[in-house]
Amino acid sequence: MILHPGVLGLLIGGAVVVALMVVGSLVGLQILRAWDPSSSSENQLALERRTYLVSALVGVALWIEIGSALLFVHTAEDLHELFVGAMCATGSLNANPVGWWVLATKGAMVLLFPVWLALNGLDQRAGDYPVVRLKYGLLVVLTPIALADLVLQIQYFRGIRPDIITSCCGSLFSESGDHLTSDLASVPAAGALPLFGLASAIFLAALAWARFGRRPVSMGVVAVLAPVILGIGIASIISFVSVAYYELPTHHCPFDLFQGSSRYVGYPLLISLVTAVVSAALPGILHPLARRSDLDGLVAKSEKKWLTVSVAAYSVFLVFAVWPLVFGNLALELM
Amino acid sequence: MRRHFRILDFALASLRRRRLKNWAIVAVYAFTVTIVSSVLLLTNAIRQEAALLLVGAPELTVQRVVGGRHAPIAVEVTETIATLPGVVEAQPRYWGYTYDAVTDSTITVIGAGPGSAELEMVEGRLPEHSTECAVGAGVAAMWGAEVGGEVILIDASTTGVLYEVVGTFAAPSDILTNDLVVMTGDEAALFLGLPEGWATDLAVRIANPAEVDTIATKIKRAFPDSRPITRSEVLRTYDAVFHWRSGMMLAMLSGGLIAFAILAWDKATGLSAEERKEIGILKAVGWDTGDVLELKMWEGVVISVTSLLLGLIAALIHVFLLGAPLLTPVLRGWSVLFPELHPVPHIDPYLLVSIAFLTVVPYVAATVAPSWKAAITDPDSVVRG
Hints:
The complex is a heterodimer of chains A (335) and B (385). Chain A is mainly α and 335 residues long. Chain A has helices at 5-34, 42-79, 89-95, 98-126, 132-159, 169-172, 180-186, 189-213, 216-246, 266-286, 296-327. Chain B is an alpha+beta fold. Chain B folds into two domains: 2-53 and 237-384, no CATH class; 60-230, no CATH class. Chain B has helices at residues 2-17, 19-53, 77-82, 137-143, 174-177, 185-192, 212-222, 231-269, 273-284, 289-321, 328-332, 349-375, 379-384; strands at residues 60-66, 69-71, 73-74, 87-93, 95-100, 105-112, 120-124, 132-136, 150-154, 160-170, 180-184, 198-199, 201-206, 226-230. In chain B, strands 5, 6, 7, 8, 9, 10 and 11 form a seven-stranded mixed β-sheet that branches. In chain B, strand 9 (150-154) and strand 10 (160-170) form a beta hairpin. The longest helix of chain B has 39 residues, at 231-269. Chain A binds chain B through residues 2-10, 12-13, 16, 19-20, 23, 49, 52-53, 56-57, 60, 64, 67-68, 70-71, 74, 78, 81-84, 124, 162, and chain B through 39-40, 43, 232, 235-236, 239-240, 243-244, 246-248, 250-251, 257, 289-290, 293, 297, 350-351, 353-354, 356-358, 361-362, 364-365, 368-369, 371-372, 375-376.
């Protein structure tokens, strides 16, 4: 199955990301080994110049990886036509379960990369490279994930054959199965919708508190809430948002939202939720850096920006999640 | 934000200053995009054509297999199949090929009937008597046959048979009807030399698509020498084959892609003395390495977007206006009477992303390090010469 245009694109993208990350990490390690900010030697100057190379390499790798994550979802979606029993990306991923691991590594990259980018932005704007060690330390964690992602992708695409009979979303996201997904699908809208509303209200209130109050504890609260909101957001999509879009009470598959028949609404839902969660988590994660005198002002400015982005992105997510409930033809039983 | 726009503005001016070099890169880049996009657009168009072709096809086709080869099937089998729950109707189909030595082409002969494809008459009607036939657009053009005229076809016993042309037809898909001659069912059976009571295969209509596989299993159980083929199986096979063909083409083009990436690397590395001086002066007046890197990035974006758009436009003209003369023999196969392909222009966002991944990603990756190399130019050494 390697000879599919989307698959070739993904593999070229994956290989380029790994190449950029490996070169970036090697240069990063070289910098770490001889880094001495107090020195004004020629060697230190050369190292400082090399930090720009690492930033450029990893920055490009990040954007390719984000595009690659979306391309992977769509390619899995496109491939389903080749399998007996598959109706969407779930079927393609079930055709070789390694696919779920690819999805996991891509998810990890998309969630971790922005942290690196934020660190890099602070570092470059500060002028005296205050977080070089932290930045390149994180790079050493990210590179193996990029490598694992490429290896798993190759394994996945090599392992899927059109003669495999696969099971699709009907069984994975059914209300009667014994998977976690089935548990999520069987959560009644009457319970899930109020929980989603309450969680969203708390999250937005916490974001506003952090944005205007600017206390360290508020940033911490938002950072803790962020993964919870990610979980509740995904559970809500499976439990009632998907149902409302399909106007079919028994169909809970989130992957069908990425199909043309659902007007590709899965993409804005996913992108806005991930953007909201990541930019909400950033202030809490990077706030400790504000204690450094050279970063204080920069961190404060960036935190404001991230929190504003988070509020905007979560509002977009809410609009897309609530739209079919308000304007759709399916009336969910809430009482 | 204004700062970024100003750097973009500077990048555009800088690209204009080195017009010749940049147009050379854009030309090669756009050519690469054209080739990759043509392959993907054409394959997509053929897949859609195939899907269109199968819209009117029966849900299930039943063939008989003898010694692993397709053999005629007894018409009486339809009676048993028609009694299966879920089957709307089962009809025999008579079709086959005949070779026309005069035009050196192979023609498909098919019996008119409920099992044959949906045909839209351009002129005249379908045949009703054994001496009549209707012809497809390609056959009509090749023989110069018109309604009311006559054609001679060579039957199974190599005897020439005279038919009156009573109609010409078109169908949603050229692939289906171009080389087609339609006769009455009985005449087609006789012409193709099928024994009485035997058909080429059977067309089975099934109301509920969810029951197709079960009915196919039941038919296989009742007639072990039969081979039921579902419509979705045929569609899946088409998809797999054309994906594979386009993937194969792209794999063959990978050498070109690598050459293109090397060219991009080379062009980005080979800074002229003038460019080095320019960067040196920029840094001397206060630009830092990050600003110069951003300038280089914007230059890359402008070159990529221009080449992508030019390449895509060229590919759209090549595939949808000219009928992809450079690629059709490889991707579609060949025959004397192959229909001209006039695919409906359709751009899938997924294709655009795939094209970008196959062309822009290698270009960007190849230019990162040279851009950095240019950005760290030391102003002192450059300005002093």
